[in-house]
Records
---
Amino acid sequence: MRGNADVRTTGYGTEPPLQRFLASCHQEFKSDNSGELADYIPELKRANPAHFGISLVTIDGHVYEVGDSAAPFTIQSVSKAFVFALALDLVGEARVASAIGVEPSGEAFNSIRLTNDNKPFNPMVNAGAIACSGLIHEVDGRAAFERIRDKLGQFAGRELDVDDAVHASETATGNRNRAIAWLLRNYLVLQDGVDAVLDIYFRQCAILVTARDLAVMAATLANRGVNPVTGVQVVTPHVVARTLSVMTSSGMYDYAGEWIYRVGMPAKSGVGGGIVAALPSQLGLGTFSPLLDGHFNSVRGLKVCEALSARFDLHMLNRSGDVRTCIIADYDIFGITSRRSRQPHEQQILDDRHSDTRVIELVGALNFASIDYVTRRLSSEPPGAPLLILDFHRVPDITAAGAQLLAEKIATLGNSGVTTIISGVETTSPVWATIRAQIEEPKRLRHFPLLDDAVEWAEDQLIYRYGGFTETKETAHLSEQALLADLAPEETAALAELSTPRRYDAGQRIVVAGEPANSLFFLQSGMVSVKLPSGVRLASLGPGMEFGEMAIIESHRSADVWADTPVKCLELPIDSFADYRQLHPQISMKIMRNLSALLARRLILANAKVDLLSAY
Ligand SMILES: NC(=O)CC[C@H](N)C(=O)O
């Protein structure tokens, strides 16, 4: 009998393919012992050259780990990307730009060269990073390091410690950085307190992380500043975009050009052996191996990044995607009405005026290009339906740019008499917040969390607009019940004799899902809703309609029925109804035919919706 381990490893490969790929990278590259440990900071020579960890975190928070992904090492220059993000967050873009450029220098990380206006080229080289730490120091003074440590901890999703030995070692030998710092002081990029700023910088470089931490930090950048593991919004999407931009152009120093050409992901390396790479809206990658190449980048880490990008064609400029796929359904309400059952004259209006309500159901993360396509599609057709429903219940995200285009289109439509109804998003959802933020005056804009409620509201507008409500029956006689169509007056009178009048208050539950189905109801006045226990509405019924009628063929209730308003109805016990039908087989035939017609109409409605969605 093979052991469990054998069965598990020789099973159907329960591991996700990406886990297997990362493990194969680790297996292939761990034997590459080229490169050298960093030795200009003596303590770094104590690193274990065999250490090799890989971690990848997805923007929905899944963490892949292989090898020494939990081995701690000092973050070193990887910290620069996150401290730059913190500086943008803390003192604002203008202040940062006044002290630090964003141009690649094409030189090594410890280059002393400054720009023609005596500023560091960018925040990824030591000069720029020391200037960044100086900006935090200007605000916090001695508390600056704690703010840095706390922010990097938010990116990693846990509290981070410092390797005091590495901090002491770099403090003792960091004379080149001292020269850079005093040069910055000379040009007033740094203010007073140069030694304090240097100590902040040395301490931030000595913060201990793991490959897993780096992957979470990178994934936070990939996820518009939200840590996908903790859910914390660490920095704004605006700050993320600027941070990733500088990582793209300068994160790998004088290897940056080759890096973007070959790998195509914003990245940052460190002499401790770490590399982070972030693929926006997809993933964050963290690798650790302390053997460095001539550019002071981790040899094995580079290979992992290059292999991942090449194998899955992940270059960030290789953006596929057909904007037209953002529309999953585009239809009017002919045959696809809401779940509110309408009285015959109301339904006639909807059948006649179905083209007055258009529904477009959207899908996927929407952006500038996809919303532009939606607006062009709306513009390319003649002015059509006065009621336009845009449903977002399959849309997890929309960018501000997309929302801006949408808002402008809604305003234009409003000016031409079209009311736009947005459905499928709660008022608390980020998608609604992004859209609403772009709409100055919500003229001719309505919002419903559920598409069905939006369609019902639009139907009500049409019925009202074409005089339907003037004929709406407040009460209905038993003879008008759809289930009893074609029965003679004395036949319905006999059924009324067998029924009991009932009254219910608004909000009262009349029928309970799962209970025995031992009666059916004829609605005389008021409105009721048929709902699943989950709260999903299946139908809303008005006077002249029946509910609980499935008791004729089912033993237990399949849904709840709630009184939306005060309700008057007749309750007919199913046994009495069965006895009556047994005594009057002809009548029974009529009733069963009516029931079949009712069920057929519901089936047609359901099929139309399924057909519509499967057609896209
Ligand atoms: N590239 C690096 O990781 C350099 C960081 C190191 N603390 C230094 O300033 O030299």
---
Amino acid sequence: MTSPLGAPDASKAPRYAGLSTFARLPRIEDVPTTDIAIVGVPFDSGVSYRPGARFGPEHVRASSRLLRPYNPAQDFAGWDAVQVADAGDIAANPYDLAEAVDQIYEGIHELRARTKRVITVGGDHTIAYPSLKEVSERHGPVAVLHFDAHLDTWDTYFGQPLTHGTPFRRASEDGFIDKTASMHVGIRGPLYGKEDLEDDNRLGFAIVTSEYIEEEGVAAAIDRVRERIGDKPLYISVDIDILDPAHAPGTGTPEAGGLTSRELLRMLRALTDLNIVGADVVEVAPAYDHAQITGVAAAHVVYELMTAMAQGLVRDNEV
Ligand SMILES: N=C(N)NCCCC(=O)O
Ligand SMILES: [Zn+2]
Ligand SMILES: [Zn+2]
């Protein structure tokens, strides 16, 4: 295999110059093969409050220009070990949720046919449903590790079954999720009723609350994640609003009392030996961001997920 093509040498081309791709990595059409594709899904027709996540992908790309090849926290240089490329954006009908979900599924399915892993950058949390549909067709029902302030296992909004508050209920009902090994991390804030928690449990999720992490610490939360998920094929979904609004103001449904970006990144880095088969990072809404605070946090989340996936591909001799 020829050496992977990485980002331009920042000592020759300034970081702030050049096309806006994730971490200034090559576009998928500019490399012969791709192992990990990072694809944008500029879609926010599923939101229930502040819109704007349709501009999330471009904001995360713009906020990722400082990322460098070697990740000391994982002692691994992901894009030097495998080919990582920016696959551009999947176009989805902003006026028809059902059609949009089909288009997102088709876009991921087509990408996955020519790459080994896909990381989707939203866009609102609706996109987790088609992504989980695609991943579960390849790996069977997957363990879902869902970082979020919100359960996102609600039923319908104004009669609509697929929105950013319902992806994991629909995915559980449709058999995409391993109900013995899925969990939410970061849950906090007001609910519609206690039955939300009863439904959530029935749909197959354990819960690590934001308050638990404050009381017991990140290490205890990591232990609970590892115990629940084990070595099952794992899908990681990161709603950036898991972070406290101080660390992610640029999002549509902010809830007080969240995690710091340091805590979230530490959790992600502790999971690099798990079998990560898919991931998304969603709900970045740049209209409410300041100085790329949220964009930079999301870019680092993608970077840690990419690094962990690259390690897994090398470890499992898939490259
Ligand atoms: N941001 C996500 N993914 N979900 C928020 C749902 C908020 C609500 O139903 O009130
Ligand atoms: Zn959320
Ligand atoms: Zn969410």
